[in-house]
Amino acid sequence: MEYVTLANGVKMPILGYGVYQVTKEECERCVLDALKVGYRHIDTAQSYFNEEEVGSAIEKSGVPRDEIYLTTKVWIEHYGYEQAKASVEESLRKLRTEYLDLVLLHQPFSDAYGAWKALEELYDEGKIRAIGISNFYADRMVDFAAFNRIKPMVNQMETHIFNQQKNLKEWADKYDIRLEAWAPFGEGRGGTFDNPVISQIGEKYGKTAAQVMLRWNIQRGVVVIPKSTHIERMEENFAVFDFVLSDEDMTAIAALDKNESSFFSHQDPSMVEWFVNMVEERKKQQGCAKEKKNW
């Protein structure tokens, strides 16, 4: 395993296992499989609704807690100082752990500043070893780094061969913020797995397209958290430390950048409204659930 060192000196595995869109029914088994393969970096979030299953798997795995780098993320409806702090305490309970290795603010909306103050305080208390952000574009990231007591140590963003985040990485490097890639395969959109440049490079090293894409980000110093529910794919994604892409390969992949999201833009006002409506809908659902419980 290779590691990156965060601004506060904490070492973070450069390859992890992500559980986004892994169902509650499958999550425990998948995390156990990932730990069996050798992963020691697990990435979850409050909005994935599988923190309890992740915690159960870690507890059952027999792997010492201090050997696992565990990340979760605070969701928008829990932003603001008091709510964010309470939500992290709840995440600690669900994940069956006394501390978290990394907590991120999941989206760049709502009272992110209030939520950040809660993370700073929990960091000071030793309940979180590192704090960061997710989906913050370069301008918001620099804003956060400049106007908070503690700078974000990580920024987790959509980062893959068609959206390489070159500008964001330059600014992240300037502020000593580690870039972490969600959707490192772009979920296959636009033909990432079938791209001829990636395929030809893979043939040269006897590696799959997925392995080439992960290795490319790793050599850029970008943390990657691929997700799969199949242990064979987990093993494939883990086998990326026995080859090195040449400068020529890295240049060829760099030329594939389209500099646009394969999903959506957080800077699109209609997308911001979509997030607002989702939060409001969840609040209504939670309110209905509480009413039924009190009947």
From TrEMBL:
Q: Which CDD domains does this UniProt record tie to the protein?
A: AKR_AKR5F1
Q: Which residues form the NADP-dependent oxidoreductase domain?
A: 21-257
Site label Lowers pKa of active site Tyr, positions:
K73
What Pfam families would the database entry show?
A: Aldo_ket_red (PF00248)
What is the active site of this protein? Y48 (proton donor)
This protein's record includes keyword Lipoprotein: no
What are the protein's GO molecular function terms? oxidoreductase activity, acting on the CH-OH group of donors, NAD or NADP as acceptor
Matching entries from InterPro entries are given as: AKR (IPR020471), Aldo/ket_reductase_CS (IPR018170), NAD(P)_OxRdtase_dom_sf (IPR036812), NADP_OxRdtase_dom (IPR023210)
Query: Which UniProt keywords are listed?
Result: NADP, Oxidoreductase
Q: Specify whether Transcription regulation is a keyword of the entry.
A: no
Which residues participate in substrate binding? H106
Signal sequence, start to end = none
The record's comment on protein family reads: Belongs to the aldo/keto reductase family.
Please identify the protein, giving its name as recorded: Aldo/keto reductase
| Organism listed in the record | Bianquea renquensis
Q: Top-down, what is the taxonomic lineage of the species of origin?
A: Bacteria, Bacillati, Bacillota, Clostridia, Eubacteriales
